[in-house]
Amino acid sequence: MSGAEAPQSPLPGTWHGHVRLRYEHVAQDSLARDADGLTARLRLGWQVPVNPSLEFLVEGEAVGALIRDYNDTISGPADRPIISDPEAVELNRLQLRWNARPSLSVTLGRQRIIVDDARHIGNVGFRQNEQTYDAVRVQFAPQEGLSASYTYIDNVYRVFGPSSPAGRLRSDSHLLQAAAATPLGRLTAYGHWFDFANAPGMSSRTLGGRLDGEWPMTGEWAGQYTLEAAEQTPHGPNPAQFSHQYYRASLTAARSGASYQVRYEQLRGDCATAFQTPLATLHAFQGWADVFLTTPPEGLEDYSLQARWTLPAPGERRAQLALTAHEFRGGGGAGWFGREFDAMVRTGLWQGWDMELKAALFDGRGSRFADREKFWVTLERAF
Questions:
Q1: How many CA atoms are closer than 13 Å to the CA of 118, on its beta-carbon side?
Q2: So where are the chain's domains?
Q3: How many other C-beta atoms are found inside a 10 Å radius of the C-beta of residue 277?
Q4: Which of 71, 73, 94 is nearest to 161 (CA)?
Q5: Per-residue pLDDT tens for 164-191?
Q6: Which of 1, 55, 133, 288 has the most CB atoms in a 10 Å sphere around its CB?
Q7: What number does CATH give the domain 14-382?
């Protein structure tokens, strides 16, 4: 993303900000009317060193709707599709970060947490209202290729905003992760103990492992692979009984500004419950149409192909182009759930502004999942 110099301030420390204007259109076969939203988001923060090893950060966020012909998840209207960008003004981050030594840091307070590629824990950065956490996070990297982290989460502030009953999860959750470089690639082991007092059905224990490595290719091509497996069981106040598995495998080939990926994901279910990832940046996985933000009780299999290119644009800018195709099937012989095609182009404009055009088309004919079309136009700038 292109940026600009931070504005000068008589106060010590540095200011930072981000402004985003987005138009979103949604058409969904099961609803009488389409949704149209034009929303604006301003994020402004201040970061200052307290002493050489301690820094303070405060950041606020405001979301307003210029056109609000959509269901914002709080006040409807129920006959229009959901666009999860309700109007809100709130504190986004308020944290102290202690850099005890180059290999050890501790962050206390309301903070952004993104673990690896955000498949299990993320900030849902695509939506206007970011997901942040009241947490204590300890990160330790004693030597190159070896790292570990522990996180305690007290509250989760979700994208639905402070006015929504679903806007905050009261949490007593723990995250553990350790990673090491091996001859086969980066090997990660993790454990997530989610305990949500006001959402017991989302409470679970997940134990898993992941391997990210490289595979040999000829010429200018470079290959990468990811293998991951996890098991999820009830935890804390969850009264259900289950044991669900998660599997992921992907292969990527890249060369001079182009990459091509084939990926398979399976989230298993038993027709009553299924493997869930409630704190993930879900929009980045299983289709931009967001049909499967909650895993169906039968489980879900996702077969996908993705191509990405970085192309020259006017001046010294670069344009990014992405195309993705998904085929969705239910677990346990539940059959076909639908297919989806996604497309995105993003380019720099002027004075640090970026523009993104994005579309998603989901075809669920023959399944219980309604067809839907989504289209976005976004302008944003960091400063």
A1: 16
A2: 14-382
A3: 25
A4: 73
A5: 999 999 999 999 999 999 999 999 999 9
A6: 133
A7: 2.40.160.10
